[in-house]
Specification:
Shape: globular
Strand content: 15-25%
Bound molecules: coenzyme A
CATH class of the largest domain: Alpha Beta
CATH topology of the largest domain: Peroxisomal Thiolase, Chain A, domain 1
CATH architecture of the largest domain: 3-Layer(aba) Sandwich
Helix content: 25-40%
Number of domains: 2
Largest sheet: 5 strands, mixed
Distance between the termini: 17 Å
Strand order of the largest sheet: 1-7-6-4-5
């Protein structure tokens, strides 16, 4: 099968910084509690999916040295679109000046990894350049009076350009998409409502599905957990990441994290953490990199890739 690899990566976050101290002014909570239970110090809020998504997409295209007009497909993962329809991807397409198919997908916080998986399949089928955008503006669906959810979420976007690698050993090695609909009520948001969740149970199930999805993609690629140089997990809670890394037997230092300053940005969290890891040397050419996301649904997705163009 023809492989796909990431040739460009770009990110964007909401402009306003909301610290734990800011939240503690209006909620019965504290910086200490939030940091200890989640690892989050602050989150970024503001912007629409179109604004954030287009900003990240432009940066990804620039890094990939790809013109928007040369894109074959735009996939936008979001569970917080600006409108019921049209899709955010249609507006991003117009904003970029692209001339290709475009659609949104909703797999909640697993959506970016779902997008990579679908994008890869299109490259295998003959497309040359696919843009995958992960963007969410959860702050618009957060009840800022609810201390059990308001502490967790933020707004952001990340985008990648997928294309066939110039070195055949680079790119996506294996992918997995899962869904456990029986857990759909653990984390939900109704039309006109706010995010509601059973935090403890989400935590428990998240660790389990992260580990099982990770083991699946490792087995499919014929790799063992210690072969993984970097794990880019969904950025929901540092304790979820710690538990999953421990169960996988991968040192915590290999996990890319950005949640300390972004909170949980849903579809954007994996590309945001990936970008941070590339910048700080946590991901290097030739590394085996494991992406693993989970979220409402309960959805889960993992992808294993050999980093590089
Ligand atoms: N500040 C202070 N106290 C808080 C609080 C806050 N922001 N939120 C809850 N509490 C209180 C609770 O009321 C509870 O008090 P009680 O013991 O008197 O009943 C106590 O702290 C412990 O609450 P609990 O819910 O058991 O805490 P926890 O350790 O499970 O942490 C979460 C709560 C939400 C941080 C944690 O469960 C979590 O992150 N779950 C996963 C959620 C998630 O990732 N969702 C998105 C998935 S994509």
């Amino acid at each position: 099968m023809r492989r796909a690899t990431i040739t460009g990566l770009g990110t964007a976050v909401g402009r306003e910084v909301v610290t734990n101290h800011d939240l503690a002014r209006t909620l019965d909570t504290s910086d200490e509690w939030i940091v200890e239970r989640t690892g989050i110090h602050e989150r970024r809020v503001g912007g629409t999916c179109l604004e954030l998504g287009a900003e990240a997409a432009r940066l990804a295209l620039e890094q990939a040295e790809t013109e928007a007009a040369d894109l074959d497909l735009i996939i936008c993962s979001t569970c917080t679109p600006d409108q019921v329809f049209p899709a955010v991807s249609n507006r991003i397409q117009d904003e970029l000046g692209a001339n290709c198919g475009a659609f949104d997908l909703n797999a909640a916080c697993s959506g970016f990894t779902y997008g990579i998986t679908i994008g890869q399949a299109q490259i295998a089928a003959g497309m040359e350049r696919v843009l995958v955008v992960g963007v969410d503006t959860l702050s618009r669906f957060t009840d800022w009076q609810d201390r059990t959810t308001a502490i967790l979420f933020g707004d952001g976007a990340g985008a990648v350009v997928l294309a066939p690698p110039s070195r055949p050993d680079r790119g996506l090695l294996s992918t997995y998409m899962g869904s456990e609909g029986r857990y759909a009520d653990l984390l939900a948001c109704d039309f006109g409502g706010y995010i509601r969740m059973d935090g403890k149970e989400v935590f428990r199930q998240a660790v389990r599905v992260m580990v099982s999805a990770s083991l699946k993609v490792l087995a499919d690629a014929g790799l063992d957990a210690p072969d993984v140089a970097a794990v880019v997990p969904h950025q929901a809670n540092i304790r979820i990441i710690e538990s999953a890394m421990k169960r996988l037997g991968i040192p915590l230092e290999r996990a890319a994290t950005v949640l300390q300053s972004t909170g949980n940005t849903s579809s954007a969290s994996i590309p945001l953490a990936m970008d941070a890891a590339v910048s700080n040397g946590g991901i290097r050419d030739g590394d085996a990199v494991l992406l693993v996301g989970f979220g409402a649904g309960m959805s889960v997705a993992a992808a294993l890739l050999r980093w590089g163009k």
